[in-house]
Amino acid sequence: MNEFVICINNASNPASLIVGKVYRKLPDVDAEKHKMIRVIDEETAERDGYLYPASMFVPIELPEMAERALMPAIG
Predict the structure, then answer these.
(1) Angle ∠(41,17,23) on CA atoms, nearest 5
(2) How far is CA 12 from CA 27, 41, 55, 56, 63, in A?
(3) What are the structural domains, with CATH classification, of the chain?
């Protein structure tokens, strides 16, 4: 199962993040040690995603059907 987060604050990155939008969180143990998370943002050209402070997002659980529907759209 994939992990998804919803953006709750884009003050420092309004061009890259949309408040209220669901983003796919990518695994990054080192980033998590520094209270950061890696997500695929609006700059979809970077397949490895970008690092952001974890405080800008809230984890959410989606039904499997919703995850499948979002995967092509999110990345």
Answers:
(1) 50
(2) 22, 13, 12, 10, 30
(3) 3-74 (2.30.30)
Distances 43 to 17, 59, 74 between C-alpha atoms, Å: 9, 20, 11
- pLDDT single digits (tens) 19-72: 999 998 999 999 999 999 999 877 767 778 899 999 999 999 998 888 888 775
DSSP state of 51: E
User: What gap in Å lies between CA 22 and CA 70, rounded to an integer?
Assistant: 9
String of b and e for 35-72 (b: at least 16 CB within 10 Å)?
A: ebbbbbbeeeeeeebbebebebbeeeeeeeeebeebee
Residue 68: half-sphere exposure toward Cβ, Cα within 13 Å: 3
Question: pLDDT at position 67, please?
Answer: 83
> The tokens of 17 are what?
């993040």
